[in-house]
């Protein structure tokens, strides 16, 4: 249940009750509950195929859970393996499409992500790490209160990993909420950990 | 409103002829190529050409409308656009409706223009040409609507989706062809009116059918 805070900020929460997820014939996890409020971050861990991406998509309400339910208050920003940027357009114009829907992406954010020099480069020529950072720029421009990040560190160099950690830390410091699925360690102060294999069928709940 | 305008601008930049380095010109060129080849295949008998030319234009229009189907919705689902729109509360129905408008604008008016040189190649007289043009005006929105419904239904298929969607469109387009091309032989406005009626029904259904199909594909 969402608890109203007495701050002027709107109530922010992400709650899941007794979630179960089935892909094909396989039950990936069951009995999963979580309760996050503004200013909290959670790191979802687990090996490949344990259902991290499915959990993110269920929480974003893009996938129906096999059982259980999801409640949330607050706008959702999703970063996953897809970019949602037009491949044939220069990066600047590809981001401009989302700017038209979401509002401005500040020049500071682009500089922080190291994208200022890449705005004229067509998206399809970007490297793996640059693509990830471009998707992060889209996420920052959305100004969503709840961040759902699926493997945000994939393909990033060490500096960029540190930058993502800083971005997440700043986001929750500003009262935002973040749930990060990653098999890599991610250092954000005060982050709780949810280990998905603990909810796999066969493990006593 | 701003959302719709933003979506429409992006769609037009992608689908209008000349966009994406000319790929979008292919349906038009295909249409003209059919009109050009037909007299070679059937022989230069002017009476035969004039009698069948209008129907050929219709068949060529149908085939030209099928060509871009695999690029219509699938790339946006694969690259995550539909997910991001859903998170922002933009309904699939709205996206599909906008895409329908862009798809029709990308081939409908241009086919009507291309029907002018095609009619010269096929030796069609002015009166028949007027009927063909009116029929195309009434029928191409319906062709676009069928195309977008089929593109949405086949959106989750990997490989072979393009051929399958072509195969699925053809039977659905039969009523449009019967009344649209049929208006040529009867010379009547009745056929065109019926074509327009079918088009309207299809255009009204398309956003909802397409939206539901895209949501189903996302669950897969």
Write out key terms for the chains shown:
heterodimer, A: 205 residues, alpha/beta, Rossmann fold, five-stranded parallel β-sheet, 5 helices, 28% helix, globular, B: 220 residues, mainly alpha, 9 helices, 82% helix
Tell me what the structure shows:
The complex is a heterodimer of chains A (205) and B (220). Chain A has 205 residues and is an alpha/beta fold. Chain A has a domain of 101 residues: P-loop containing nucleotide triphosphate hydrolases (Rossmann fold, 3-Layer(aba) Sandwich), CATH 3.40.50. Chain A is built from 5 helices and 8 strands. The model of chain A has no long low-confidence stretch (mean pLDDT 89). Chain B has one domain. The longest helix of chain B is centred in the middle third of the chain and has 31 residues. Helices cover 82% and strands 0% of the residues of chain B. Chain B has 220 residues and is mostly helical. Chain B contains 9 helices and no strands. The two termini of chain B are 31 Å apart. The model of chain B has no long low-confidence stretch (mean pLDDT 89). Chains A and B meet through β5 and α2 of A and α1 and α5 of B.
